[in-house]
C-alpha cells in the first residue's frame, strides 16, 4: 500500500472513517505501528518528557526532533510522519521555515506547531514553500507556564468561542490537520463540525475525526503518571502488536475514548 497522504486523511473525514494516530520516536516501534495500519505517526516533543525525563516539553530542540524523525522514517512505509516544531523554534516566519526544512529533510511529511491566529502568516508561508502543516489547539503543552499547569481548556464560553475562531483561522491559513488536546467533548464536536479538515483529538472525546495517544501512555510505561484521557492497551492484550490493534479497533468503533477518558 502507498503512503497515507493528506488527501486520504481528508477523504476519511468525509466518509466518517476514524483516523488512528500515535506518537513514535524510534525505528522498532515505528515499524510495529506502520504494519498495524496506524495512519499517522507523530514525532512529538512529548519525547522531552517520556524519553528525556523532563517535566515539560520546553527543553526539546529541533535537533532532538530531527534525530528521532530520521529513526522513525527509517522503517515507516505507509504511515504519514508528522514532526513537532519544538518550543520557540517558530517565533518568526524565517526561523519557522528553516527549522521546518530541517525536519522535512530528516523524513517528516508534515510539521506541527502549537497556537492560534498569530501563526497564520508562518503557516501560509510554509505551505507556499511545500511544507504541509498540522495545527494544535486546546491544551498546548509548550504554553504550560502561561496556563499555570496542565489543565482542560475551553470550559468557559469566551474561551470556547476563541478556540473555534482560532481553528477557523488556522484552516484558512492552510493547515491540513488539527490536533485538539484536553477540551470538553461538546467543544471538540463543535470544532470538528466547523472544520472541513480532519480534527484529531487527545482528551477530547469520541466526536473528533480521529485520536492520538502518546505511545508510552498507550502501553502504561510513562515514567510519570498516566493522564485520565489515556488507556493502557497492554492490560487486556499482554502483547504490544495486539495492544496497537486493539487501540485502532476501539478508536474505529468509538469504544475508546470512553466517558471515563473524557472531559465534560
Ligand atoms: O508531543 C506530543 O506527543 C503531542 C501529542 C500529545 C499530540 O503533541
Ligand atoms: Na507535542
UniProtKB/TrEMBL annotation:
TM region positions: none
EC number(s) on file: 2.1.2.11
Cofactor(s) for this UniProt protein: Mg(2+)
Transferase in keyword set: yes
Keywords: Cytoplasm, Magnesium, Metal-binding, Pantothenate biosynthesis, Transferase
Annotated positions binding Mg(2+): 45, 84, 114
SUPFAM superfamilies listed in its UniProt record: Phosphoenolpyruvate/pyruvate domain
Pathway annotation from the record: Cofactor biosynthesis; (R)-pantothenate biosynthesis; (R)-pantoate from 3-methyl-2-oxobutanoate: step 1/2
Function: Catalyzes the reversible reaction in which hydroxymethyl group from 5,10-methylenetetrahydrofolate is transferred onto alpha-ketoisovalerate to form ketopantoate.
Name this polypeptide is given: 3-methyl-2-oxobutanoate hydroxymethyltransferase
Lineage summary: Bacteria, Pseudomonadati, Pseudomonadota, Gammaproteobacteria, Alteromonadales
